[in-house]
């Protein structure tokens, strides 16, 4: 009997358009002989199932079911394709865990931790994970440009602490430009992180749970046509994403080992994608994404293809992993 799979997409953040693309890619790719797939759009004002005729049916949040033409539909599993809040920050995970509905992403605590860049980096430092020097600000804090420059130097990156897809990020070259960059980041989040600029090769590495084992995917080298790997570079073709990365076997193995260590240390499940920049021959962690992009332009699908894993296998395996009793 085919399983009913809810594919969550949308969300409450600036990433919702990317999430809709990711979710639709999953919907178009899932094996229709094994699964009944239902696109579920999640927005602040409505949670709805959208059918092929573009008709909308509201989700009953009490039990995450939907009434379609007088038939009540419940779901065996949820495929989480929401980037940002509430799909990547722990809220959706907690909701489904309370309802007892399996889902494809990591658990609530791990999602919340990895979504918070400051907390993530602080948690991993005792495990020997190298990171850039950083400076933290909360909304309302006084801004001391001299202290910031002393801590991280110039140029530096000003980032929203809890946001993805390079929303709310600026590369700052001059001290007098810091305040404008900080204001831009505060439009995305009430916490920001200011990081030292690392001038080196940038790579991305996917780690997934595949057929019951932790699998590290081939590395992708990121070469942005812009000043850094911003939104245009990620989604509008303004970058080269080269898989496998053009780095030495020693560099690649070192990065793969660190990415796997992070995955296991944090007890992650499902998909993850970690970003690193090399400094002094050592990979320094930038961030960990637990609901990475799944569009045609996205890095994780490229890496899976290089590992000989089709999108149908990738997405189907995520569902089967979620449905196992050990999830």
**Number of discrete domains:** 3
Sheet-strand content, in percent, reads: 25-35%
Q: What general outline do the C-alpha atoms trace?
A: globular
Query: Within the CATH hierarchy, at the fold level, what is the topology of the largest domain?
Result: D-amino Acid Aminotransferase, Chain A, domain 1
Largest sheet: 7 strands, mixed
Structural class: alpha+beta
Just name the CATH architecture of the largest domain: 2-Layer Sandwich
**Low-pLDDT runs:** none
Q: Into which percent range does the helicity of residues fall?
A: 25-40%
Mean pLDDT: 93
Rg computed from alpha carbons, rounded to a whole number of angstroms: 20 Å
CATH superfamily assignment of the largest domain?
A: ATP-grasp fold, B domain
Strand order within the widest beta sheet: 6-5-4-3-2-1-7
Write down how many β-strands occur, each being a DSSP E stretch of 2 or more residues: 17
CATH C-level of the largest domain = Alpha Beta
The helix count comes to 10
Distance between the ends: 21 Å
Order of H and E elements: EHEEEEEEHHHEHEEHEEEEHEHEEHH
């Amino acid at each position: 009997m085919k399983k009913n799979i809810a594919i969550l997409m949308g969300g409450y953040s600036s990433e919702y358009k990317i999430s809709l693309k990711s979710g639709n890619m999953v919907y178009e790719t899932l094996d229709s002989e094994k699964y009944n797939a239902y696109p579920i759009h999640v927005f602040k004002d409505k949670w709805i199932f959208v059918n092929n005729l573009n008709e909308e049916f509201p989700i009953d949040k009490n039990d995450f079911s939907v009434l379609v033409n007088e038939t009540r539909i419940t779901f065996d599993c949820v495929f989480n394709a929401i980037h940002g809040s509430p799909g990547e920050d722990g809220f959706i995970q907690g909701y489904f865990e309370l309802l007892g509905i399996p889902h494809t992403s990591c658990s609530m605590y791990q999602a919340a931790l990895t979504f918070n860049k400051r907390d993530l980096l602080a948690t991993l430092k005792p495990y020997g994970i190298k990171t850039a020097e950083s400076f933290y600000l909360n909304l309302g804090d006084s801004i001391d440009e001299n202290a910031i420059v002393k801590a991280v130097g110039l140029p530096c990156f000003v980032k929203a602490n809890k946001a993805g897809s390079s929303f709310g990020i600026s590369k700052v070259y001059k001290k007098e430009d810091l305040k404008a960059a900080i204001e831009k980041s505060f439009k995305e989040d009430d916490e920001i992180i200011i990081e030292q600029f690392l001038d080196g090769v940038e790579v991305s590495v996917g780690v997934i749970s595949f057929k019951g084992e932790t699998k590290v995917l081939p590395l992708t080298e990121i070469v942005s046509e812009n000043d850094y790997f911003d939104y245009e570079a990620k989604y509008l073709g303004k970058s080269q994403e080269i898989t496998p990365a053009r780095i030495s076997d020693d560099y690649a193995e070192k990065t793969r080992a660190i990415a796997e260590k992070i995955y296991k240390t944090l007890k992650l499940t499902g998909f993850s994608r970690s970003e690193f920049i090399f400094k002094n021959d050592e990979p320094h962690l930038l961030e960990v994404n637990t609901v990475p992009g799944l569009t045609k332009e996205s890095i994780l699908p490229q890496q899976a293809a290089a590992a000989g894993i089709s999108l149908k296998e990738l997405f189907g395996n995520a569902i089967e992993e979620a449905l196992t009793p050990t999830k």
